[in-house]
């Protein structure tokens, strides 16, 4: 079975002109022209796709600060239990394995899993071919020709910023064309390899894109069809073909897969099989929680039934989707009776409330989410009574301003402070401002920004954790430990919280306690290079050089692109007198970062000591090109002496 999810793909963009390959796939199977996501954000929507549960049931309500809990059974787990190979190949950090979607997958190939940056800045997404090529290699693996398989492939490219490669590409539609071409090549390769002959293919999107409709540039704030309607194609041998108008929903995908694959149905799931079409009309639940989680706006919930949509907010809305598909005429006042009936349906759909497993990325992870246009907000206590001023429509201008700051790199602290002053409940702006302050060496100001809101009884987990990391960055590990121990003591703490606690304890000389914290962090995020590196440093501080060396060797083996690991490897090799091994390690550092002046200097003097003078002079010249004065005057003098030899 193959599940393909295209991030941010609007239903109205799957056309013969923009997406001929996706259109071709649709011609071979069932096309559901009115299919709905349940949330306009990547992580919650994929949690619904993989579990078959609505967001209130699986508890994942936003990006970045939530994790799918282990008790929730995923499609991958169901199939793995039946002997399927299971592999996931995702295109963006927002679906990193730390957020819980890896349950049941033997291989979970994400940006933090395949690239060794795991707790560092930089790499947050990869282009569609970078996802699809390894996915095809895995699917076509000749060593397991007869074993059934389930592959989930997620491509991120249509997501903002719209920068598809190629001079002919432009804007959002250019991204769609790029992804369609990549998916066409991927499906053709699978077909040539015989992998599609007996395979069910489900292709859909996690949500759409506003593109300015209702004033929303991207997605997350509203439940209008621009961001909630998604393409949905189900194709495969003996499944037939057809075009269906009756609304379908993403919670239907797990029941459909179980049905088509001949596995027992799960009566606890709220969706239904689409094998023979969408069936009778039933209500579809929608929610948009990003405004609530990030800005303290009123939550947005909605229900679609019989061609009508009710949106429950302080300023309620209702639309006749048949006559007004763009949702331009709010008919709530003129259709009071129908609105009243839909209001009675909505609470039952939203009643299944699962435990929200919240976590908060550290400033580095937060920066990666910001570069994708996201800012996470954790679970909040609902305000007793939202006013019209809290309606998402009223919050839209300041929300859009915040998103524009994220798109520009979120370095405008004055702009972030203006948002905080205008709307003090805009938690995401406060968290981002604090992260930027820490990134720019202003940790004391970050503490000032966070202390008061983090001390409130209803303070969110992200706010408390960010205060702990701010204390650590400000050189106050004692205060960091006090805050972070309270955070982890409440359960559901992130790997980053445990990591920060480990660093804080280590700085206080509590090395055994630090090791315990790092061990927990690594269990939660086994691919995080920075956390493993921090444990290595703590082991060195405690005198456990053998344990540190063993951990470091394993780290550089599994994460060969993590430069700090190689840098420390070189230092330890040099200390034990193994200059040849030190040269190898430091050469790896400069191969990864050609401007690492410390590594170039170390290479120069160590190569000199080994008598490899030509190589030493080359390294010395590279060092001299980038070393600043006066900080490196002593080293420059040594290099000058080396370069003077002939």
If you had to describe this structure to a student in words, what would you say it looks like?
The chain has 646 residues and is of the alpha/beta class. Among the domains are: 278 residues, Alkaline Phosphatase, subunit A (3-Layer(aba) Sandwich); 83 residues, Tetratricopeptide repeat domain (Serine Threonine Protein Phosphatase 5, Tetratricopeptide repeat, Alpha Horseshoe), CATH 1.25.40; 85 residues, Serine Threonine Protein Phosphatase 5, Tetratricopeptide repeat, CATH 1.25.40.10. It contains 27 helices and 15 strands. The strands form three sheets. The protein has an eight-stranded mixed beta sheet with strand order 5-4-6-1-7-9-2-10. A four-stranded antiparallel beta sheet has the order 12-13-14-15. It has a three-stranded mixed beta sheet with strand order 8-3-11. The radius of gyration is 26 Å and the shape is globular. The N and C termini lie far apart (66 Å).
């Amino acid at each position: 079975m193959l599940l393909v999810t295209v991030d941010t793909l609007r239903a109205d963009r799957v056309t013969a002109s923009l997406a001929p390959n996706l259109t071709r796939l649709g011609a071979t199977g069932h096309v559901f022209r009115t299919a709905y996501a349940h949330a306009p954000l990547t992580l919650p929507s994929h949690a619904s796709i993989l579990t078959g549960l609505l967001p209130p049931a699986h508890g994942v309500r936003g990006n970045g600060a939530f994790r799918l809990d282990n008790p929730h059974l995923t499609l991958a787990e169901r199939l793995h239990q039946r002997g399927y190979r299971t592999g996931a190949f995702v295109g963006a950090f927002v679906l990193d394995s730390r957020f819980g979607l890896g349950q049941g997958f033997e291989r979970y190939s994400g940006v933090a899993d395949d690239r060794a940056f795991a707790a560092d800045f930089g790499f947050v997404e990869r282009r569609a071919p970078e996802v699809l090529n390894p996915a095809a290699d895995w699917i076509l693996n000749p060593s397991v020709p007869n074993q059934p398989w389930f592959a989930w492939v997620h491509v991120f490219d249509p997501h903002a910023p719209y920068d598809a490669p190629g001079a002919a590409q432009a804007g959002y539609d250019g991204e769609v064309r790029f992804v369609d071409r990549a998916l066409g090549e991927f499906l053709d390769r699978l077909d040539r390899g015989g992998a599609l002959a007996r395979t069910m293919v489900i292709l859909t999107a996690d949500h759409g894109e506003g593109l300015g409709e209702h004033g929303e540039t991207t997605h997350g704030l509203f439940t209008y069809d621009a961001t909630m309607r998604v393409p949905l194609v189900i194709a495969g041998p003996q499944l037939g073909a057809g075009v269906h108008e009756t609304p379908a929903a993403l919670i239907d995908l797990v029941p459909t897969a179980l049905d088509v694959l001949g596995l027992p149905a799960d009566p606890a799931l709220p969706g239904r099989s689409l094998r023979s079409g969408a069936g009778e009309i039933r209500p579809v639940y929608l929610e948009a929680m990003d405004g609530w989680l990030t800005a303290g706006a009123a939550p947005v919930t909605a229900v679609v039934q019989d061609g009508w949509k009710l949106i429950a907010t302080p300023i309620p809305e209702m639309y006749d989707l048949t006559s007004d598909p763009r949702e331009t005429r709010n008919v709530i006042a003129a259709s009071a009776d129908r609105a009243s009936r839909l209001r009675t349906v909505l609470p039952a759909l939203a009643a299944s409330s699962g435990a929200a497993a919240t976590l908060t990325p550290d400033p580095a992870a937060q920066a990666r989410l910001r570069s994708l246009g996201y800012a996470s907000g954790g679970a909040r206590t609902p305000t007793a009574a939202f006013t019209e001023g809290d309606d998402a429509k009223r919050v839209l201008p300041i929300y859009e301003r915040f998103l524009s700051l994220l798109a520009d790199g979120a370095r405008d602290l004055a702009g972030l402070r203006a948002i905080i002053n205008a709307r003090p409940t805009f938690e995401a702006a406060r968290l981002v401002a604090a992260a930027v302050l820490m990134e720019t060496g202003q940790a004391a100001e970050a503490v000032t920004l966070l202390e008061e809101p983090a001390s409130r009884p209803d303070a969110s987990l992200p706010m408390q954790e960010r205060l702990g990391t701010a204390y650590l960055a400000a050189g106050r590990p004692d205060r960091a430990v006090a805050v972070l121990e309270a955070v982890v003591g409440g359960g559901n703490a992130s790997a980053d919280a445990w990591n920060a606690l480990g660093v804080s304890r280590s700085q206080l000389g509590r090395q055994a306690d630090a090791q315990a914290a790092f061990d927990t962090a690594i269990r939660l995020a086994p691919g995080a290079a920075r956390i493993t590196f921090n444990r290595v440093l703590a082991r060195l501080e405690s005198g456990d050089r053998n344990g540190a060396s063993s951990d470091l060797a394993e780290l550089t083996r599994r994460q060969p692109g993590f430069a700090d690991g190689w840098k420390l490897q070189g230092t330890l090799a040099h200390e034990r007198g193994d200059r040849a091994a030190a040269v190898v390690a430091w050469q790896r550092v400069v191969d990864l970062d050609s401007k690492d002046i410390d590594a170039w200097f170390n290479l120069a003097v160590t190569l000199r000591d080994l008598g490899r003078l030509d190589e030493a002079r080359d390294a010395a010249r590279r060092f001299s090109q980038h070393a600043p004065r006066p900080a490196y005057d002593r080293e420059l003098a040594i290099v000058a002496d080396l370069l003077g030899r002939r």
